[in-house]
Design goal:
about 200 residues, mainly alpha
């Protein structure tokens, strides 16, 4: 990367951060203006349009950047050897910490965009992120099964359908609009308890 490319990447990062900060307010996406982003990032509005073409593209890039940060941190944490329960709770705490960095309105706006079913690059990227999340969870379930923390009666197919049902349920506006950040860890605790072998199964 030459000097020009480095300066461009740095300026884009400044714009994304400024837009994130403005979106992470009670006004959210609805109150975002390119003029405010330009002022906060100390970047000419024409330059921002040159980088992102439109406000809609900028909003989607902010969401994608946020999701990519979550994915990268999750991958980094999963590379550290831990017992199954600790690994799962670490993932829950990581998601909670990331969402706390944002806010309720940012989360609501993100979920609103996430649930749009269209052919946009954002929707395709989110589909890839969801599939990657399924694969990570499946690897965790395999670890849990090997450690005797998941009842053997639960097949991979069942576990994936269970996770898909949970995720698709959460994407419904009537559900995600009521979600609080701390629910993530509560759900993870419930998941661990529901998948654990029963005392009777341990005696077989």
């Amino acid at each position: 990367m030459n000097g020009f490319e480095k300066r461009t990447a740095k300026k884009k990062a400044q714009v994304l951060q400024a837009a994130f900060e403005l979106m992470n307010t009670p006004a959210g996406v609805a109150g975002l203006t390119m003029s405010a982003v330009a002022e906060r990032s100390h970047t000419a509005k024409a330059t921002i349009f040159k980088y992102f073409e439109s406000k809609e593209n900028l909003i989607q890039e902010v969401f994608l950047h946020f999701i990519e940060q979550m994915r990268a941190k999750a991958t980094e944490e999963l590379a550290i050897p831990r017992p199954f329960e600790e690994q799962l709770m670490t993932m829950a705490r990581l998601k909670t910490e990331m969402l706390e960095q944002a806010g309720d309105q940012f989360y609501q706006d993100l979920m609103s965009y996430y649930t749009k079913k269209d052919a946009s690059p954002f929707a395709q990227a989110m589909e890839e992120y969801t599939q990657n999340s399924y694969n990570l969870m499946l690897d965790l379930f395999h670890q849990g099964r090997k450690e005797g923390k998941i009842d053997l009666k639960y097949s991979d197919e069942f576990l994936m359908i269970y996770m898909q049902a949970m995720i698709e349920g959460v994407t419904q506006p009537t559900i995600y609009q009521k979600i609080k950040v701390n629910y993530t860890e509560n759900w993870t605790e419930m998941l661990l308890k529901s998948l654990a072998p029963s005392p009777r199964g341990n005696q077989k």
